[in-house]
Write a structure and sequence with these properties.
By secondary structure, this protein is an alpha/beta fold. It has 13 helices and twelve strands. InterPro entries: DNA_recomb/repair_RecA-like, HHH_XRCC3_RAD51B, P-loop_NTPase, Rad51_C, RecA_ATP-bd, XRCC3-like_C.
Amino acid sequence: VQLKSVQDVVCASAPDLQRLTGLSNSDVQQLITAAAAACRRHPPITAQQLQHGVSGVRLGCPVLDRLLRGGLPVGGITELAGESGTGKTQVGLQLSLSVQYPAEHGGLGAGALYVCTEDSFPIKRLHQLIGEQVCLRSDVPADLVNSLRFSDHVYIEHAADLDSLQVCLTRRARLLLARGLVRLIVVDSVAALFRAEFQADDWLERNRRLLTFSSMLHHLSQEFSTPVLCINQVTDVFSQSHNSMGPSSSTVSPALGLAWANQVMVRLMMRRLQGMVIRGEQSSALRRLEVVFAPHLARDGQDTAVWTEGLRGVESWTSNRK
């Protein structure tokens, strides 16, 4: 076997490289390190960099931005999973507007690409959020908020199958990113197409396509320093009670299994809680946004509610619950 490329070096074991090249063990380790560096197009983002504020996109709510240490990080995939009606799409819409603010106000000064794979885009809710930006972003001067043409910079794509999703990411997304028109990609949702196109016994091909999809997102995110939000469905996980004759209890877990989980840098989940929270004439079902894992975040959570102006954290001392 001959070594013809850096990929050959990376794929070979240290003993095989030592046998093939005649190099010492220390020289082989240096060779592996150099080959790995040559294969990597962009330096990785470390947990320390994330913890000390690699610029990202804030949600616009101080309570939730504290939970996420500043918002959605660049250079990786953030997954937001949860059952239907928990507020996942609200987060995607809110970030699509927040990204348009300048960096000093928690944005990246560009638009968002919003890819819908199951439902039609909630255009009425988007316009409602735009109309309430002055209320949500009271930290930003009103004249700046009013000067931003939010609806002109949310680029909407519908992908009915995996092939059209691939075309969208390889052509449309790359073009928008290269021109500096967008700095955020939202896929809503990632599980819909994979669940629709593959049966249970097609898991090998499904995983192959899933890895191809995640690889495209990683390349775009790294090359253009762009946050990626993938909204995901959940699947029921049943566990038998301690009494083997008793009923099984059910919890939920993000869809697509370990093959997808290993591609995600940050995993967030949303779930509905019992009770309502009231603010003036508005009321909202209580929800909870939880950090499941992230290299720079502790496992934590925050109660939230959806108001006319968007998703906000609910602090116990300001909420009235029923």
